[in-house]
Amino acid sequence: MNGDIGITLRLPERDGDGKQVLRVAFPRNDGSDGVRFVLPSRLNEVETVYAMTVHKSQGSEFAHTVLILPEALNPVLTKELIYTGITRAKHWFSLIEPRQGIFEEALRRKVKRLSGLMLGL
Question: Which residues form the UvrD-like helicase C-terminal domain (predicted)?
Answer without folding.
Answer: 49-95
